[in-house]
Design goal:
Helix content: over 70%
Number of strands: 0
Shape: globular
Number of domains: 1
Oligomer: single chain
C-alpha cells in the first residue's frame, strides 16, 4: 500500500521497538479522537460506542503494556456504522471525519496489540488522508503539514510534549470540521 507517511517516519517505526510504535499510534489516534467523539456525541444509541472509543484511546497511551484484548476491541470497533458505509458511500462531512477517526483507531488497536510497524503505518496514513481532505475544504488550513510534523516528533526520541500537542491538534481539527458543518448548514 502506498502511504502518505513520510519515509523517515516509516523507517523510524520499522527500526523501532514496540513501545515507539505504540506511542506513535496513540498520538495519531488522540489527534483524531475529537472528530469521532465530538461528531457522534448526542447521537441516540451511541453512548456505548463513545465510551468504548474514549477508553480505547486512553488505553493506547500505555506503550509498555500491549493491549491483551486488542483483537477483541478491533472486532467490536468493526461493528461501528462508520466502518460500514452504505452503497452511496460516505458523503456527509461529519460521517467522513468520523469514519477516518474510527479507521485510525482500528489500525492503532492492531498496532498496539502487535507492536508492528506494518499495522502502525495505515494508522498514520488514515490521519494524514483526513487532514489532507480538511485542508482542501478549509481555506488557508495546514492540517496536513501539522500532522506530518507531529508524526515526525517520534524521530526526536523525546515524546515529553507529544500528548499535549496531540490534544491541542485534535481540538483544532474538531473546531475546523465544526466550522464547516455550521457554514454548510447556513447554505
Amino acid at each position: 500500500m502506498k502511504t502518505l507517511v513520510e519515509e523517515a517516519v516509516a523507517e523510524a517505526l520499522r527500526g523501532g521497538d514496540g513501545g515507539r510504535i505504540r506511542l506513535y499510534v496513540a498520538a495519531c489516534t488522540e489527534r483524531m479522537a475529537p472528530l469521532f467523539v465530538g461528531l457522534r456525541a448526542g447521537t441516540p444509541g451511541r453512548e456505548a460506542d463513545l465510551d468504548f472509543y474514549v477508553e480505547s484511546v486512553r488505553d493506547l497511551w500505555y506503550p509498555d503494556r500491549p493491549l491483551a484484548d486488542a483483537a477483541e476491541r478491533v472486532r467490536l470497533l468493526e461493528r461501528f456504522p462508520e466502518l460500514h458505509p452504505t452503497e452511496e458511500g460516505i458523503t456527509d462531512v461529519a460521517d467522513t471525519y468520523a469514519f477516518f477517526a474510527a479507521l485510525c483507531l482500528r489500525y492503532a488497536l492492531l498496532a498496539h496489540g502487535s507492536g508492528s510497524a506494518d499495522d502502525a503505518l495505515p494508522c498514520g496514513h488514515a490521519a494524514l488522508t483526513a487532514m489532507g481532505m480538511l485542508d482542501q475544504n478549509v481555506p488557508g488550513a495546514s492540517f496536513l503539514g501539522e500532522e506530518q510534523r507531529l508524526q515526525s516528533l517520534l524521530l526526536l526520541g523525546d515524546a515529553s510534549g507529544l500528548w499535549d500537542a496531540s490534544v491541542a491538534a485534535g481540538r483544532e481539527r474538531f473546531r475546523a470540521v465544526s466550522g464547516r458543518l455550521i457554514r454548510q448548514a447556513r447554505t
